[in-house]
Specification:
The chain has helices at residues 21-38, 43-59, 61-72, 76-96, 135-146, 160-176, 191-199, 212-224, 247-259, 279-291, 311-326, 377-385, 400-407; strands at residues 2-5, 12-16, 104-105, 112-120, 123-127, 150-154, 184-186, 205-209, 228-232, 237-241, 269-275, 330-333, 348-351, 368-374, 389-390, 392-396, 416-419, 431-432, 435-436, 443-444, 453-461. With 475 residues, the protein is of the alpha/beta class. Helix content is 37%, strand content 20%. It has two domains: 2-233 and 439-458, Aldehyde Dehydrogenase, Chain A, domain 1; 237-419, Aldehyde Dehydrogenase, Chain A, domain 2, CATH 3.40.309.10. Helix 2 runs antiparallel to helix 4, helix 2 (43-59) packs across helix 6 (160-176) and helix 7 (191-199) runs parallel beside helix 8 (212-224). Strand 8 (205-209), helix 8 (212-224) and strand 9 form a beta-alpha-beta unit. It starts with a strand and ends in a 14-residue tail after the last strand. This is Alpha-aminoadipic semialdehyde dehydrogenase. InterPro entries: Ald_DH/histidinol_DH (IPR016161), Ald_DH_C (IPR016163), Ald_DH_CS_GLU (IPR029510), Ald_DH_N (IPR016162), Aldehyde_DH_dom (IPR015590), ALDH7A1-like (IPR044638). It comes from Machaerirhynchus nigripectus.
């Protein structure tokens, strides 16, 4: 049994019974049986079921958003926004259900057709993190479902209520359509369930969202059985501001990217590179903006900044601030725990560190922004890329040549490369994911659907002859 706590006051909310390995085994068997039903349903009909799931989520959007605020700790508008993201992905998946498929390719042999056939992989395991307890499952499940897969979800133990609530909404839609609820299964559990999923050969694809450290272990376990994994891991994201940037865009963008979700997004801005000509001005304006951030209970509609998710996160925050000071940094704003119930810390700005300080290269899941000076474009592009992760990045400039150099082969090496907008707040229509230690996986939009399917190249001979490829004669 796991007790979930409200991060705003550390009061217990509920006790949730966790699944054991016997429960897991039974769930996998039921999911595999459900797949036999689901895979036979035409993709557009599967899309119709996903549309109904989106509508059911729409009807519960405020109450589900409130539950996210209560259990995860993000502010109410972000909790609702997260459910909206799942709804948006459902809408996107409905259209996609009539578009997925491969090309008909020209064959070099007369009387032959060459086609690409896409089929579902089967059972998709989805392991999600506490920071997006609804949306990340939505990205995976909506797309996986229209592709003809069934899903088995393990959410974070600290957001078990959200996992249960979402699953009940989906199960009702499935059962109302006389379909097995096991098409979208849930096992609440800890590392033992996650390890079982990673090692299970019946798990045709495992999507894992979490830390780089755990993601590496998951990847090795999956690879050991030659399985498929989709990894969404850490980010150490940078915003680069050039001397010609519009500061009216820079300040709110940096504020949202660094302070939003109390610094607990994988796309949170953790490094802010400022051209030396504007460094002091931007730091002063940013500190002033930080001072106006409304801190409060996450479910209060006026609040912009809520608590960290756990007591452990508060300790990590304090340790990182201390290390930053020891490595030569100056705390120009924040740096302390806020004296109130819950896991509240001050949003923090640190200046004066070198670009390669070890703490700057460490992803701390907390609202700490390291502000760094630069002189030249070439050096700052290299500094953006020198960290191990490669998730999100953004520059602020009006120079068209610089923008396209940034987007090009010698620019950002990240999966998300932005111009004049923050590092966080991605739209669902694009593929979401990053390079290097971020894991290389892609979810949500574009052609991410291909990761949830297997491809077959099919050659069909409809003639009475048997010509061989490459003109080979074998007679």
């Amino acid at each position: 049994v796991v007790t979930t706590y409200c991060p705003a006051n550390n009061e217990p909310i509920a006790s949730v019974r966790q699944g054991n390995l016997e429960d897991y085994e039974e769930t996998v068997k039921k999911a595999k049986e459900a797949w036999k039903v689901w895979a036979d349903i035409p993709a557009p009909k599967r899309g119709e079921i996903v549309r109904q799931i989106g509508d059911a989520l729409r009807q519960k959007i405020k109450v589900l958003g409130s539950l996210v605020s209560l259990e995860m700790g993000k502010i109410f508008v972000e909790g609702v926004g997260e459910v909206q993201e799942y709804v948006d992905v459902c809408d996107y998946a409905v259209g996609l259900s009539r578009m997925i498929g491969g090309p008909i390719l020209p064959s070099e042999r007369p009387g032959h057709a060459l086609i690409e056939q896409w089929n579902p992989v089967g059972l998709v395991g989805v392991i999600t993190a506490f920071n997006f307890p609804v949306a990340v499952y939505g990205w995976n499940s909506a797309i996986a479902m229209i592709c003809g897969n069934v899903c088995l979800w393990k959410g974070a133990p600290t957001t078990s209520l959200v996992s249960v609530a979402v699953t009940k909404i989906i199960a009702k839609v499935l059962e109302d359509n006389k379909l097995p609820g096991a098409i979208c299964s849930l096992v609440c559990g800890g590392a033992d369930i996650g390890t079982a999923m990673a090692r299970d050969e019946r798990m045709d694809l495992l999507s894992f969202t979490g830390s780089t450290k755990v993601g590496k272990q998951v990847a090795l376990m999956v690879q050991e059985r030659f399985g498929r994994s989709l990894l969404e891991l850490g980010g150490n994201n940078a915003i680069i501001v050039f001397g010609d940037a519009d500061l009216n865009l820079v300040i709110p963008s940096a504020l949202f990217a660094a302070v939003g979700t109390a610094g607990q997004r994988c796309t949170t801005a953790r490094r802010l590179f400022l051209h030396e000509s504007i460094h002091d001005e931007v730091v002063a304006k940013l500190a002033k903006a930080y001072a106006q951030v409304r801190i409060g209970d996450p479910w209060d509609s006026d609040t912009l900044y809520g608590p960290l998710h756990s007591k452990e996160a508060v300790k990590m925050f304090l340790d990182a601030v201390e290390q930053a000071k020891q490595q030569g940094g100056s705390v120009v704003y924040g740096g302390k725990v806020i004296n109130r119930p819950g896991n509240y810390v001050e949003p923090t700005i640190v200046t004066g560190l070198p670009h390669n300080a070890s703490i700057v290269h460490t992803e701390t899941f907390a609202p700490i922004l390291y502000v760094l000076k630069f002189k030249e474009e070439e050096e700052v592009f290299a500094w953006n890329n020198e960290v191990k992760q490669g998730l999100s990045s953004s520059i602020f400039t009006k120079d068209l040549g610089r923008i396209f150099r940034w987007l090009g082969p010698k620019g950002s090496d990240c999966g998300i490369v932005n111009v004049n907008i923050p590092t966080s707040g991605a739209e669902i229509g694009g593929a979401f994911g990053g390079e290097k230690h971020t894991g290389g996986g892609r979810e949500s939009g574009s052609d991410s659907w291909k990761l949830y399917m297997r491809r077959s190249t099919c050659t069909i001979n409809y003639s009475k002859d048997l010509p061989l490829a490459q003109g080979i004669k074998f007679q």
